[in-house]
């Protein structure tokens, strides 16, 4: 299923967002993906590894949004973010549920906020869920049950003509309502605060 979703997303972006599509970096080889996973010392969900094999984030000079005001992170940026957050946690800078070493950011807004794959299943026991990490707010929310659900939400939003990758999203209340309907259908019972 994830292969079909990625293929469909690739075709949609190529046809409808050619500039953003050009900013997506070549995917990792199997060997590079394995080395990346070893570097993180975290077992990544198979569906996320397939994304990395498809595309390794956006170019470092890309500021075009893929999902709301977030860009898809490259593996080197993911590794650096994990390292920094883990160091801050180890030093005592982070308190409570601010950060978990099992979180792997894959979207970044350039301001320290991320969407993270939660490989530990914090709060719910559901490893692979997607957690919204805000750098200046202690509240953490589970936004998607899995990486596949996030990807499906993104693709279904694009196919519905919703500008979820545009600064214009949220201007039109009908767009908000249509997105919410897609979100609730794909992500039943969410969001949930941790």
Q: What does this molecule look like?
A:
The chain is α+β, with helices and mostly antiparallel strands and 194 residues long. The longest helix is centred in the middle third of the chain and has 16 residues. A hairpin with a 5-residue loop joins strand 4 and strand 5. Helix 1 runs parallel beside helix 6. The strands form two sheets. The protein has a six-stranded antiparallel beta sheet. The chain has a two-stranded antiparallel ribbon with strand order 1-2. The protein has seven helices and eight strands, in the order ααβααββαββββααβ. The chain has a single domain, classed as SMI1/KNR4-like, CATH 3.40.1580.
Write the layout of secondary structure elements.
Elements lengths: L1 H15 L1 H6 E3 L3 H11 L5 H9 E4 L12 E2 L2 H16 L12 E6 L5 E5 L10 E5 L7 E4 L2 H13 L13 H14 L5 E2 L1
Antiparallel strand pairs: 1-2, 3-4, 4-5, 5-6, 6-7, 7-8
Helix pairs in contact: 1-6, 6-7
């Amino acid at each position: 299923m994830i292969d079909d979703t990625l293929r469909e997303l690739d075709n949609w972006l190529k046809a409808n967002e050619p500039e953003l599509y050009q900013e997506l970096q070549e995917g990792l080889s199997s060997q590079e993906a394995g080395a990346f996973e070893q570097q993180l010392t975290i077992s990544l969900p198979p569906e996320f590894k397939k994304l990395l094999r498809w595309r390794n984030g956006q170019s470092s000079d890309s500021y075009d949004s893929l999902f709301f005001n977030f860009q898809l992170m490259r593996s080197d940026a993911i590794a650096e973010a994990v390292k920094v957050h883990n160091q801050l946690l180890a030093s005592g800078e982070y308190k409570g549920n601010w950060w978990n070493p099992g979180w792997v950011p894959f979207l970044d807004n350039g301001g320290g906020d991320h969407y993270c794959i939660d490989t530990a299943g914090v709060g719910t026991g559901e490893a692979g869920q997607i957690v919204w990490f805000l750098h200046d707010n202690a509240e953490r929310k589970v936004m998607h049950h899995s990486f596949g659900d996030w990807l499906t939400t993104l693709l279904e939003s694009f196919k519905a003509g919703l500008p979820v990758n545009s600064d214009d999203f949220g201007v039109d209340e009908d767009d908000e309502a249509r997105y919410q309907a897609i979100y609730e259908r794909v992500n039943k019972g969410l969001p949930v605060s941790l």
